[in-house]
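Researcher: Let's continue the batch. This sequence belongs to OmpH family outer membrane protein, and it's 167 residues. Same format as the previous ones, please.
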Amino acid sequence: MKKVMLFFVLLIGLVSFAVAENIAYVDVQKIMNTSKKGKKLKSEIQEKVKYYQSKLDNIDKQISQIEKQLESPVLSEEAKKKKKEELTKLKEEGAKIQQEAEKELSQMKAKAERELILDIKRITEEYAKKHNIDMVFIGGAIGGVVYYDKAIDITDEILKMYDREQK
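Model: Same format as before. Here are the structure tokens for OmpH family outer membrane protein:
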């Protein structure tokens, strides 16, 4: 079954190459990392990481202080009990913040990638139509290209068009 599937994929690829006269390549990852919008979105995500890290660092400090206080021999049993309860609440709060951070950062990253990919796709289509390109392969982290000749790479042109839109 796999051989039949592979045969059809190769056949479709060969037919596409036979029909396509002008072929180009775009490195989507490069555009995502170096475009103005990509850098802006990456910066926003990094700021959110710093925000959550600051909150978690603050909780860690509080936990350390309470743990040191619990080592004190002069602390009464009642005071130790309250400190242990406070420690448990802080650890729970830290875990909650960690989960919240992971969820929000994951959503921010997915949204940013979705926006960038849709924009890059739109601009690449415009470029391909304007320059009579029949087929554009994508590369980078999400591409399936093993090799390409630099002569067909239109990544820098797409990046320039995309950055011009961001002004």
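Researcher: Any comment?
Model: The radius of gyration is 26 Å.
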